[in-house]
Specification:
The protein is of the alpha/beta class. It folds into two domains: 182 residues, 3-Layer(aba) Sandwich (Rossmann fold); 172 residues, Rossmann fold, CATH 3.40.50. Helix content is 43%, strand content 14%. The strands form two sheets. A six-stranded parallel β-sheet has the order 2-1-3-4-5-6, sandwiched between helices. A six-stranded parallel β-sheet has the order 9-8-7-10-11-12, sandwiched between helices.
Amino acid sequence: MAVSQYARSMKIAFHSPLKSPNHPVPSGDRLMARLLIAALERAGHQVAIASDLRTFMRAPSADMFAALKVEAETEIERISALWQRDRAPDLWFTYHLYYKAPDLLGPRLARAFNIPYVTAEASYSARRNIGIWTEAQAQVVEAIEQAAINICLTKRDRVGLADAMPAIRTAMLPPFLDASAFLALEPQPQPHRLIAVAMMRAGDKMDSFRMLAEALKLISDQPWALSIVGDGQLRVETEALFSGIDTNRIEWLGQKSQDEIATLLSQSSIYVWPGCGEAYGLAYLEAQAAGLPVVAQAIAGVPEVVLAGQTGVLTPPGDVSAYANAIRDLLVDTDKRARMSDMARQFVRDERSLDKAAAQLSALLNQYVGPDHAE
């Protein structure tokens, strides 16, 4: 049921410059983009993906940025012609813009058609003002300053934006999840069954796999087994990190569907993922919805999605021994694990559901760009 308090539903143009909701490769970014669309629609709005243009630059390249700006001009012309023929939307909504993926479309189109511009999960880092990143980040600053409201999913991002641009408007929308597939299954945890769900790629993911492998070697005296869900270009390198551990203890399951992941989580006891550099990690919410306490680090955006001491254990960043001991403690203390399991499901069901997010989004848009809003 729609939860919007608008006199009419809004027609919203949605854009995700980092990765379109239509992108074929699954990721947390794609999932959150789809979740935001679902929440907006549940709030009673009509959402259309304005463009699949991806402005992501993995490495700084003046030539690539110039080519992206040419592509953006073509898209602006296409969208403008479409809006001139049909009715323009009531709002432009951009998800996840930052120095590697600036929004080259929304700010200009919003100004040209005199409609509000809104961002979600925008971020800014002054230390990235180097080379071509400086020009890309200038586009990000322009968008953030133009926005009627910048919706932040983590306190860290909100503080970063406010410190750099004190005059902008920000609001919080905690990370959320369509948890129905996970809450629908009654937890049937197999004793000592650990599980992690992650893509196997360079950078923070490999750092987390490395830390997990090192921690598990420190608790080899415990009767644990680990299921690893996920795949990627560094599958061989990831498996090599766990060399020296009894191969019978680790189950490499590859990529799975959401329903398959929900079943696997419901059959496990503890979710183990260190979370190096995690913006927040929707997989943590999935695990908690399935009734798993989490063992992660108190790092980056992880504390935004795991309640330390209640739905999981968060250890000091980089402390492998502390991380290993936290896993050991939950393996041994079955009562503590059961309490955290119950609290984890309640936390996601009551505080981080799609319905809750839809109501929060509706209230934010009503406050900043709705019919009762006045400049």
